[in-house]
Amino acid sequence: MKLELRGITKRFGTLIANDHIDLVVQPGEIHCLLGENGAGKSTLMNVLYGLYRADEGFILLDDEVQNFQGPGDAMRAGIGMVHQHFMLIPVFTVAENVMLGHESTKAGGRLDVESARARVREISDRFGFDVDPDALVEDLPVGVQQRVEIIKALSRDARVLVFDEPTAVLTPQETDELMLIMRQLKEAGTSIVFITHKLREVREVADRITVIRLGKVIGEASPDATNAELAELMVGRAVELTVHKDAPTLGDRALVVDDLTVIDAKNQVLVSGVSFDVRAGEIIAIAGVQGNGQTELTQALVGLEQRVTGSITLNGTELVGSSVRGILDAGVGFVPEDRKEDGLVGGMTIAENLVLDRTDGPPFVRGGGLRLGYIAEFAEEKFREFDVRGRGIDTPVGTLSGGNQQKVVLARELSRDLSLLVAAQPTRGVDVGSIEFIHKRIVETRDAGIPVIVVSTELDEVTSLADRIIVMYRGRIVGIVPGDTPRGVLGLMMAGEVPSEGVAA
């Protein structure tokens, strides 16, 4: 199916999110839409999917003008969307999620779940998805949940598939699997619109690339273009893709973790006997495939895990048993891996989110009342410094793109007086220009003598930032190695292989 967008314009008040955008996607083509956070990519696709109505312009499918009143019309016309944040019901099975909204019934009005099961099996077998139709979605890894989203779209005969930042929550291995799936879909004749800001992925699968900046199409690029060329097209300036940092000036052991164990409510050991230290002026990166204890470890460091044994001391003060409030007051900055759930309050403004955990005293409170003028000045400064793309500091943070939401979290945490920074997936869903900025700020934090822990599934990020790397597997530390350890060695460690003695740090 040929997709064509002509002159699509979408305004939100005075903000022009899409400015007369033209786009053509040929049948059986992977067409990448590349741009910064807030460039208008997702808005454009929400217009295509019927979630928004364009103020100007129109959509054609196989040269016929469409008039979508909502997503149902788009789906019936053959358009499917795989959202960055999955639209699945966790307590439903795969088959139940696939039939949701398109329920068929048998005699007596009973739901025909068996037909949905058969459809899941048929699509799963065709593309090698290996998805159990009777599995509960909440029990599936993130990569498999994404396959369920794809099956949902294909079960409704989608001939144009939109992938909106599909790798933002995936591990490197799951990302590689998705690239393979996209190629299989292309070979089956499906047209794909791939929205991303990750340059490696673009060059790996795109047949054509359209670059959007500040709501406008600025041109097309070849998949043979270099990362630097693509980054400059996206951002409008040369972007430094390499992290530059001097050798660390190490201080005393600031954070000491000793025999830390985390157990869940079912008495399963999620973190087992973990011990390490972080010196002042050092970046420790924690690497591993998602789900090997990194999440629970970082949550234990900031008091979010209840069933913890062992010891965590920061500058000699024991943190195990302290409240989250007490740990934050001790100078711990925390960037959570799930910004929507743990980092922000979507209905509150950017300004309010920038002072979420700092309204119990100076400088934002005086005489028991909030200093609203001071808060506004602070928020405006951070809004500009972190280049948050939105209508202003009074914008509800939940209306921002994922990358801009991440900038708000980082602006809040990096603007505090820190004794320790814990950053989990700090650049997840963030574009190359913002990644450059965030990495510089993390290195500046380390160079100011503050210990830093970075948790990331992106090996390029790990090796770029780390002075030392901790690799975790099944809740244990496989090894602690230098920051310049080769990716191949790290990959083997992430699979549970213990490094040779000459490699361990």
UniProtKB/TrEMBL annotation:
PROSITE patterns: ABC_TRANSPORTER_1 (PS00211), ABC_TRANSPORTER_2 (PS50893)
Subcellular location: Cell membrane
The enzyme's E.C. designation: 3.6.3.17
Enzyme type, top EC level: hydrolase
Domain ABC transporter stretches: 3-239, 255-499
Presence of the UniProt keyword Hydrolase in the record: yes
GO cellular component terms attached to this protein's record: plasma membrane
InterPro entries per the UniProt record, alphabetical: AAA+_ATPase, ABC_carbohydrate_import_ATPase, ABC_transporter-like_ATP-bd, ABC_transporter-like_CS, P-loop_NTPase
A molecular-function term among this protein's GO annotations: ATP binding
Pfam families in the cross-refs: ABC_tran
Coiled coil: none
Keywords associated with the record: ATP-binding, Cell membrane, Hydrolase, Membrane, Nucleotide-binding, Repeat, Translocase, Transport
Main location (coarse class): membrane
Keyword Cell membrane attached: yes
UniProt-listed SUPFAM superfamilies: P-loop containing nucleoside triphosphate hydrolases
Topology in the lipid bilayer: Peripheral membrane protein
UniProt cross-references to PANTHER family, sorted A to Z: CARBOHYDRATE TRANSPORT ATP-BINDING PROTEIN MG119-RELATED, GUANOSINE IMPORT ATP-BINDING PROTEIN NUPO
Protein name, entry field: Ribose import ATP-binding protein RbsA
